[in-house]
Amino acid sequence: MQAASGRDAPDRCPGAVQVHAAADGGLARVRLPGGRLTVDGLRTLRAAARDLGDPALELTSRGNVQVRALRPGAEMELAARLSAAGLLPSDTHERVRNIIASPLSGRDGLGAGDVRAVVAAYDAALCADPALAALPGRFLVTVDDGRGDVTPLGGDIGLHGDRLTLAGRLTTARGHADLLLRATAAFLAERAEQGGTAWRLAELTDGPARVAARLEATVDPRAVKNGTGPSAGWTPQTDGRAALTVVVPLGLLTPAQSAALLDAAPEEIIVTPWRTVVVPDVPMAEAEHVETLLTAAGLVTDPGSPWAGVTACAGRPGCAKALADVRADARAAVEAGTAPTGLPVHWVGCERRCGAPKGRHVEMLATADGYQVVA
């Protein structure tokens, strides 16, 4: 059987060891399963970016962090620092640890359960299985606690509560980390049977149905009820503390902003796939101080801010294919009040549309003749 995708080359998603040669230097992507990053981990990333490349950290649409403009050979020093900080548990599997989870799971009481242990167990099992290093770098796992925030993001496999999802569709299979592991292996087996070149489950002929059958399950025709990620601002936690979600303008975390997060976060931050950051477990007595600290650094806590929902690809000068400095143009439009409103807006430098959000949004597409608005 031939692969439906017609791919003729492996994916080239960057990692922390296998970096991408961008126009501005090496580009490293550091996977953060479930988006969780301890303050020590953030401190390590901040220092590495400052010492080895561009001091600003990029947030991605999969809740990961990128370091740009690495000097030639600096990836070895970066990998050593990440490994020492526990951010690189496996050199062989580091590109395939693409796991998005409900950011507030276990804290705000809205989900059906706490998925943090599921993410940790699956990540450990993934790294322990040599065969799973063969996964494409685009393969995505979503672990949704049932509220419907990350299932709509297009994971190849996932959990919605305890229900297995395949390409975002519910199945009759139920379980937790062990089921995710079996589904991952089933994807690889089906991929091999269909030619071994597909990057995503949806590229396989009847991919969800065939993988479900390998697990003695079927695809459920009922649709998942979609939710949304946390809005900017405060969310009360069930333990009496609170979590503050902040918008990172254009997903670019400046040195001043990362320093403010280090001062504000009690133990960890959560990087979300919406290019926001959650600071959880803040004692209520410290809430006003934390919000003042973060807003002073340029992070946004107002859900009605014109920055909410505005994202952009790297653009010039970091990307050789880009036709414009989209970040500068997006910033100018937001500050002038001329950016589109009503829907999320994503600015892109070319027709590859890197980093585009899922769901309805307005696209500002750079062309040789200026920007084309695509609704």
From TrEMBL:
InterPro entries, per database record: NIR_SIR_4Fe-4S, NiRdtase/SiRdtase_haem-b_fer, Nit/Sulf_reduc_fer-like_dom_sf, NO2/SO3_Rdtase_4Fe4S_sf
Metal-binding keyword on record: yes
GO molecular function: 4 iron, 4 sulfur cluster binding; metal ion binding; oxidoreductase activity
Gene: cobG
Organism: Dactylosporangium siamense
Record's keyword terms, sorted: 4Fe-4S, Heme, Iron, Iron-sulfur, Metal-binding, Oxidoreductase
Boundaries of every Nitrite/Sulfite reductase ferredoxin-like domain copy: 27-84, 236-296
UniProt protein name: Precorrin-3B synthase
SUPFAM superfamilies per UniProt: Nitrite and sulphite reductase 4Fe-4S domain-like, Nitrite/Sulfite reductase N-terminal domain-like
Domain of life: Bacteria
Classification via Gene3D superfamilies: 3.90.480.20, Sulfite Reductase Hemoprotein, domain 1, Sulfite Reductase Hemoprotein,Domain 2
